[in-house]
Amino acid sequence: MTDPHGIERLHARADFDDIYERVLVPSFPAHELEQPESLWQQIAAGGLHAFAARGAGGRFDSVVMVADHAPVALVLYLAIDPTGRGSGTGSRLIRFATDFAARDLRADYVLAEVESPARHGPHPTYGDPRARLRFYARQGMRLLDAPYFQPGIGPGAPRVPALLLGLLAAKDAVRTDAGVLAPPLAAFMRSYLVASEGRLGDDGATVRLLAALDRPVVRTLPANDYREVAHGDLVGEAETHAPAP
Question: What is the pLDDT of residue 4?
């Protein structure tokens, strides 16, 4: 698949490995980035879809992935080579990924994760959460009012506290005046936690997150109102890491 703007599906393992090392590794802390073999296995199995755009030299220099958790799709690992930032490539990739999820995956909800500027400051390597949230606000993101944290990548792995779970798109059937229907999101969250961490934990952070989604409707807020969102702060060893095997 290639769109008119030059975004292509990553089919070849060599292309994937190249962009993983050159673009993904410098863009994410090691504990937030799955190993290439795991990601490629998910791509080969059809549950994860990876797309990339080429830079001026013809080499892939940006990437985005979409995980299919029907009826929810999760946009992951948006990364741009530093030489290509500010060119509009990130916006094109997000729009492409969102449209792909809604059209091809028939997702009722399209979500993305972003650090909360209320808890995370600028980093010399990984960027400024405020700028990142402004970027997503321009893409129309609204925030789910749930105390979200990024699950650990594997049993016992560290979690990332105080992330925001943003809604990039939602079909009319799941929208309400107060927000969006919550039961499919609660089901998604349980399966996502199990897939990431190995099993569903009974720690306080997991209980708080699921309690926020175990209701008829979860409200959404504009991205600029991130301070009003319940934050997924983590306290103690039982919350800061995925449950042990």
Answer: 46
